[in-house]
Design goal:
This protein is α+β, with helices and mostly antiparallel strands and 124 residues long. A four-stranded antiparallel sheet has the order 1-4-2-3, sandwiched between helices. A hairpin with a 5-residue loop joins strand 2 and strand 3. The radius of gyration is 15 Å and the shape is globular.
Length: 124
Amino acid sequence: MISITIPNPDVTIQQRKQEMNGEEAPIKPINGFIDLHEIPRDKGGLILFYNNRDELLFAGKARKLRQRVKKHLEDNVSPLKNHRDEVNKISVIVVEDPMEREIYETYIINTMRAKYNVDKVFFE
């Protein structure tokens, strides 16, 4: 039997509704997230999107983490496009090796039963 331990997230950001009393926010939020700068720009790894009940909505991998997170929050082809309003928390795990990213992604999708992943799903 293979034993896989999911690494702890390197960065976790929460959705924040910024109230500035009519003034413009200093950082333009993307779908309510203003701390995207904390996600590494040039590192590869895994991205986990959670709802407000800490249920995994979607898990993905990326060669450049911050760029991929932004695409999921803004792009029209993201599997999350119809469910962005459910995303409350984003966790990022830095994993540089592409093979390890692939293994972790498949394992996380199936053990944590990611709600909106359709590829690599082995659970019913």
